[in-house]
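TICKET: design request
STATUS: open
ATTACHED STRUCTURE:
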């Protein structure tokens, strides 16, 4: 993901922490008298969620749940149960464009790991048989989740950072913070306004340029800004780019003309799922989905350098790169 802070002029010095958590760079910028303590608590909360939801940790609840696929259910913390429940709801809403049971495909491709490769069509078809969110059995009474078939597995990579951003915001607010920037690898939450009372300016990555090159900026106050893009994690074979957002219909990286989707919303969990979902759904269906949800706005960028912006952002988004063509909705 790649939405970054452009400017933050203020005469009050924030507490700034940069660290590596959840497989990504975490940057916190926290203003106010209690900032040191609040930041510490926020980092602890991020670690706590990572320990519960990471697919890369043997002791996480998700790993335990995946190991029991086809056999029994796994009792989960409120955090993990909630995120799975939300992910299932969105899987239904998007008719499987978002599918939290995508893990066998994610693992097969291994993008971003030392095992990344282009699998054969046969391998993909075999693993794809295991991908189906309808096989996730939720028992809310006992806070237990079970995967129906052996080999099935859940991956919360498209949603967990959004949930974490929401939880970090909660921790900060509970610790008397009213102005902060949370950046979990481009999954941004701009808490409140800047300490001088003006809105934050968040850069939107130019998906065709190097990291940190923006094609425009967004002015926001107390909003989540989440981007999914084909430049975040990928490898190239014979000149072809293979990225980390898969179309659950065929098990290949999603190719439909979209190269980045940015979602602006009140809750980052919604922004995170919707950025991944709309990336897979494509321009027409993606815009339709976003427009059907109140309080959610979007910026979609296509490979032919068109920028589609929903009506609610017309005053807050500023396209600065003239190579791109602005298409208002
Ligand atoms: P994001 O960067 O938020 O768009 O999420 C991408 C991550 O979500 C990937 O690295 C995978 O872990 C996971 N993922 C990939 N494709 C899908 C999909 N179609 N539905 C749900 N999760 C996905
Ligand atoms: Mg996402």
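STATUS: resolved
RESOLUTION: sequence designed for all positions
ATTACHED SEQUENCE:
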């Amino acid at each position: 993901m790649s939405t970054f802070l452009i400017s933050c002029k203020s005469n009050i010095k924030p507490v700034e922490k940069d660290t590596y958590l959840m497989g990504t760079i975490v940057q916190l910028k926290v203003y106010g008298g209690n900032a040191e303590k609040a930041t510490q608590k926020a980092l602890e909360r991020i670690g706590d969620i990572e320990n519960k939801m990471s697919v890369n940790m043997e002791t996480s609840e998700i790993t335990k749940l995946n190991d029991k696929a086809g056999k029994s259910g796994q009792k989960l913390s409120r955090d993990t149960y909630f995120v799975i429940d939300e992910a299932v709801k969105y899987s239904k809403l998007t008719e499987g464009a978002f599918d939290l049971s995508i893990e066998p495909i994610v693992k097969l491709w291994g993008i971003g790991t030392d095992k990344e490769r282009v699998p054969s069509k046969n391998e993909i078809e075999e693993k794809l048989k295991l991908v189906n969110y309808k096989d996730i059995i939720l028992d809310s009474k006992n806070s237990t989740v079970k995967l129906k078939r052996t080999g099935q597995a859940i991956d919360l990579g498209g949603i967990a950072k959004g949930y974490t951003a929401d939880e970090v915001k909660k921790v900060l607010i509970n610790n008397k913070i009213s102005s902060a920037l949370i950046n979990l690898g481009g999954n941004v939450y701009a808490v409140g306004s800047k300490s001088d009372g003006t809105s934050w300016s968040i850069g939107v990555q130019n998906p065709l340029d190097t990291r940190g090159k923006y094609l425009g900026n967004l002015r926001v106050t107390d909003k989540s800004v989440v981007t999914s893009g084909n430049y975040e994690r990928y490898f190239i074979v014979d000149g072809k780019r293979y990225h980390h957002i898969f179309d659950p219909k065929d098990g290949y990286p999603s190719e439909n003309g979209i190269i980045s989707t940015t979602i602006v919303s009140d809750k980052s969990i919604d922004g995170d799922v919707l950025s991944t979902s709309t990336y897979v759904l494509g321009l027409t269906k993606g815009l339709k989905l976003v427009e059907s949800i109140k309080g959610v706005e979007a910026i979609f960028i296509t490979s032919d350098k068109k920028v589609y912006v929903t009506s609610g952002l017309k005053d807050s988004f500023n396209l600065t790169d003239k190579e791109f063509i602005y298409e208002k909705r």
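CLOSING REMARK: The CA atoms of residues 103 and 155 lie 5 Å apart. The longest strand covers residues 258-265.
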